[in-house]
Specification:
The complex is a heterodimer of chains A (503) and B (157). With 503 residues, chain A is mainly α. In chain A, 72% of the residues lie in helices and 1% in strands. In chain A, helix 5 crosses helix 6, helix 7 packs parallel to helix 14 and helix 13 packs antiparallel against helix 14. The longest helix of chain A is centred in the N-terminal third of the chain and has 34 residues. The radius of gyration of chain A is 22 Å and the shape is globular. Chain B is an all-alpha fold. Chain B folds into two domains: 69 residues; 79 residues, no CATH class. A two-stranded antiparallel sheet of chain B has the order 1-2. The radius of gyration of chain B is 24 Å and the shape is flat. The chains are: A mainly alpha (503), B mainly alpha (157). The interface between A and B is large, with 56 and 66 residues.
């Protein structure tokens, strides 16, 4: 209880609230601009949060991403271009609604159900995380090895229709992570005598490269495609929302639940949650023939799902240090920088920070209502910001952000190299999320693997001797088996768009 | 740009071979069976397996006579190709000369160059380039105390 009061006192400070509101506005803008994603918003925020206390730093990230995932719905309805990949699943449906003259209703539904879905995600996070942390306190290197491997496995399984490319991306990310001082023996590897490579590939510049620079490179060749904003006046967006809720409350609950489950699975985030919940909604709808004609039902499912996934992704991130999506992958880096190593012990040592994260999530979701309303009202102006000016400025921002993380051009070099690699990977259908997860989890995986190998004296059976380790191990092996089985079957293609860039 | 999977596989195998070769020079510690070379070796073996499968798949799915590398439509448009190259060139330039020239002059040049290439009207380009550079400088150097390179303006700042 004391920790909750302490957490509240940490948040309800003028400076912290100011940071949260500013980050929210930033997130709204980034989310609403096609081509700028929520992950990119996070990567761009990190160099700034680096100079803040832990609570405002986390607050800025939580607020910005919450807003960005909702704001992605705005250009989806008005331009038929999703603002973030999380809105891609129902972009056509939203646009069809706008064309029917239901832009107001569409915006209202997106806003209100994003808020409600987000709150469900937070509620599950608050309930599940401390309980899981209690169970996780007894874990040894065997359990952590399997957890890390399970996390990476899920990332491959969820993020790509071609498991082979997912595995390749994962191995590539893990390989990059071996550059630097090895975590078991402390010996420098693959550093070629460079002092800067000794510290390893700096994580945040790598993220800025893979998520922001690669996106900017793609944007640079289509810089003159501004898109025409739909010419419709926006009235009262809250009219008719209650009727939608009464009719589709079950869709809202189902979408949020799917969002929570997918969000909590490592490697899959809001975008995949939206695709799957939209597909489920269509599959079980009483009127599937209306889908595609501007029908609100699937939108209720999917817009709730992508926001609830956002909060749930923090569950594995906080409890095990295993990111639930690419945003929390960056968050884990931030947690380490702030000296609050994610894992069950943070719940004992710094519970006020955990409660602070919970409170910020609630606050951010409530703030979304007025700020989202304002963003919708101002959307025509936002969408008119010229891309040919925005792109170079963001590029400059990336450069300075990467530089700030190392205080030397080394950060910019890392950003440039990994940005080009990330661009090439996406051009060739290799998903980026597994590579990033490999980069984040590589050290944990290797350290626990080496410790376990030494403890078990090289016997692989030792990895299955403890009960929880055995369960996790079997689960991991089963998923691998399923993946191998799937790759030898003809492509089913149930969920379209899974090969698209991550959130 | 999209190269055939077989080419990706080949590149990966080469990369993995280099990893294994480099890992061979890592030391073994007496009394310890597992040294720093173990993990890279496992990863490299995995990459070789994936690379092999990619080559196999790339060759199997390749239509006879089709190109090994497919170029996206934008690559035949000179202006778009230039946009792509200019972004990378500006980054390289920044890495090489930022310490001597300094953030403010280079930042203005960086933005102005890209703006003009992207066909922003010259007057707005100059105004926005100067304002944006100064704002970013104020935000990072003054507010967050990032030591952005001063370069030519060292005596003034």
């Amino acid at each position: 209880m004391d920790a909750i009061i302490l957490a509240a006192s940490l948040i309800f400070d003028l400076k912290v609230v100011g940071v949260i509101v500013a980050a929210s506005a930033f997130g709204m803008f980034v989310g609403a601009m096609p081509g700028l994603t929520a992950t990119m918003a996070t990567a761009l925020l990190v160099p700034i949060t680096f100079f803040m206390d832990p609570v405002p730093a986390l607050g800025a990230i939580v607020a910005a991403t919450t807003m960005a995932i909702f704001a992605g719905d705005i250009p989806a309805a008005m331009l038929r271009i999703p603002g973030t990949p999380a809105s891609a699943a129902y972009t056509d449906e939203s646009y069809a609604m706008s064309k029917k003259g239901e832009l107001d209703l569409n915006m209202g539904v997106n806003l209100v159900f994003s808020v409600l879905g987000g709150l469900i995600g937070v509620a599950i996070l608050i309930l599940a995380a401390p309980a899981l942390a209690e169970a996780a306190i007894n874990f040894s290197s065997f359990e952590y090895f399997w957890l890390a491997l399970l996390g990476l496995t899920c990332a491959v399984f969820m993020s790509s229709e071609h498991p082979l490319k997912g595995i390749t991306a994962l191995l590539f990310g893990l390989s990059i992570n071996t550059i630097g001082i090895d975590p078991a023996a402390g010996f420098p590897r693959f550093t070629f005598g460079s002092v800067e490579l000794l510290q390893g590939i700096s994580f945040i510049p790598a993220m800025i490269g893979m998520f922001a620079l690669s996106e900017l490179l793609r944007g640079a060749v289509t810089v003159d495609h501004q898109g025409a904003v739909i010419a419709q006046k926006i009235g009262n967006i809250f009219t008719g929302i209650y009727a939608v809720f009464k009719k589709y409350w079950f869709n809202f609950l189902r979408g949020s639940t799917i969002g929570v489950v997918i969000g909590a699975l490592p490697g899959a985030g809001a975008d995949i949650a939206a695709w799957i919940s939209f597909a489920v909604s269509k599959r079980f709808s009483k009127t599937p023939e209306k889908f595609g004609t501007g029908h609100v039902e699937g939108i209720v499912d999917a817009t709730s799902a992508n926001n609830s996934a956002l909060g749930a992704a923090w569950i594995p991130a906080l409890v095990f240090g295993i990111p639930g999506d690419s945003i929390t992958a960056i968050v884990i880096g931030v947690l380490y920088m702030k000296g609050m190593n994610p894992g069950p012990t943070v719940f004992l040592q710094n519970p006020q920070f955990i409660y602070a994260v919970f409170l910020i999530f609630i606050l951010a979701n409530l703030l979304m209502l007025p700020l989202g309303w304002a963003a919708i009202k101002a959307s025509k102006q936002i969408l008119r910001v010229p891309r040919n000016m925005l792109l170079p400025i963001i590029l400059m921002f990336c450069v300075v952000g990467a530089y700030a993380m190392t205080n030397s051009p080394y950060g910019i070099i890392v950003m440039l190299v990994l940005g080009v690699i990330g661009w090439l990977m996406e051009e060739h259908g290799f998903p980026i999320a597994p590579a990033i997860l490999g980069l984040v989890l590589g050290e944990m995986l290797e350290q626990n693997f080496m410790t376990s190998m030494i403890k078990a004296d090289g016997s692989l059976l030792g990895f299955f001797e403890r009960p929880i380790a055995a369960c996790l191990g079997v689960a991991t092996v089963l998923i691998w088996a399923a993946m191998i089985w799937r790759s030898f079957r003809p492509k089913s293609g149930i969920i379209p768009g899974l090969d698209q860039p991550g959130t | 740009m999209r190269a055939n999977d077989a080419i990706c596989g080949l590149v990966l195998i080469l990369l993995a071979a280099v990893m294994i070769a480099l890992a061979a020079s890592l030391p073994e510690f007496p009394g310890q069976k597992y040294g720093p070379a173990l993990f890279p070796r496992i990863l490299a073996s995995g990459l070789i397996m994936c690379g092999g499968l990619l080559i196999w798949r790339g060759l199997a799915t390749r239509a006879p006579g089709s190109a090994w590398v497919a170029w996206a439509p934008w690559t035949s448009d000179r202006w778009r190709l230039g946009s792509f190259a200019l972004m990378l060139a500006m980054l390289l330039l920044y890495i090489v000369v930022s310490e001597t020239v300094g953030f403010i002059p280079l930042g203005v040049f960086f933005l102005l160059g890209l703006f003009l290439w992207f066909r922003v009207r010259p007057l707005s380009a100059v105004i926005v380039a100067v304002i944006a550079t100064l704002t970013i400088h104020w935000f990072f150097a003054t507010l967050l105390r990032v030591p952005l390179p001063r370069g030519w303006l060292n005596t003034i700042l």
